[in-house]
Amino acid sequence: MRYADAGVDISRADRAKQRIRHLAARTFTSGVLNDIGAFGALYQLDRKRWKDPVLVASADGVGTKLKVAFAMRVHSTVGVDIVNHCVNDILTQGAEPLFFLDYLALGKLEPAVVEQIIEGMAGACKRAGCALIGGETAEMPDFYPPGEYDLAGFILGAVERDRVLNGSAVRAGDVLLALPSSGLHTNGYSLARKLAFEVAGLKLDTYVAELQNKVGAELLRPHRCYLPALREMLRRGWLSALAHITGGGITGNLPRVLPRNVQARVELGSWPVLPVFRWLAQLGEIDQAEMLNTFNLGVGMILVVPPKNVRLVEAYLKRRREKFFAIGRIEPGKPAVVYSGQFSL
Fold first, then answer.
1. Backbone dihedral region of 237: left (phi > 0), alpha (psi from -120 to 50 degrees) or beta?
2. DSSP state of 32
3. Taking the model in full, what pTM does it have?
4. Neighbours of 340 (CB within 10 A)
5. How far apart are alpha carbons 140 and 5 in whole angstroms?
6. Separate counts of helices (H) and strands (E) for the chain
7. What is the CATH T-level fold of the domain 3-163, as seen in this structure?
8. pLDDT tens digits for 274-314?
């Protein structure tokens, strides 16, 4: 017998990895010291660029959004998702991305599928100025069903020590500005899929008037990257903190960047809830608290801004034609989110 008889085709994997090498090479920056294929990836930090750097690392996955990608047979968007999610996570501590690695495991390695995923990742890395320098592509027969895979990402970034955001600079009186999300991003998909496909009985190609889109296309909207909007503000030290609104919504994520003596008061109705969230709330008859604790509801990143910098930040965002919303402020109290008002879901 051969390894291929057990379901692992090394020659097919080698062909796929040749294409990966080509796509990854497009993202290489000056710090990358070796090509894809070595046992480890080499990266040299530019000490002229970084004076007193702190390294910031993060890892994440795409979650059950992958189920939508499998069914749609569209795989490039989840490659974008995993990179942008990881970039946003380290942004919250002030870090700019240096390099990215991926883990891709499939029941059967299909080169065309792998290429789509890596193409999406490479494009997102290129746009973020982040090198895709390695990873693992594993063929695991009998572990994943045919046509399915798992995808995870690992990122390393850097920030000057005196620019690290860790919540300690947050004070009562700071203003909360929200940058909009593009949709569900990569969270809440287990509930969203259940509502769309089981409760409502819809198909991927069903057009929904409230969404002005087909269900599958709406659910595959890529996770937005906030680096272009925030890079210059981070370098100038205009922000007290940043909160990436992922699983747990505003309720679960904003307190992660608050010190012990303050809380966030958020005014509901101060930003437009995206149609997809209103639609899901109606399908499941979901109450306001559950929605706030599950989905981002149209807010992808929250900026905590000292009062003296609010005009600077707002003027900068307007120059960039970035949408933003003033959604509340920091007040004395225990770390938590306190809501005022209500949505009309």
1. left
2. B
3. 0.94
4. 11
5. 13
6. 11, 12
7. 60s Ribosomal Protein L30; Chain: A; (3.30.1330)
8. 999 999 999 999 999 999 999 999 999 999 999 999 999 99
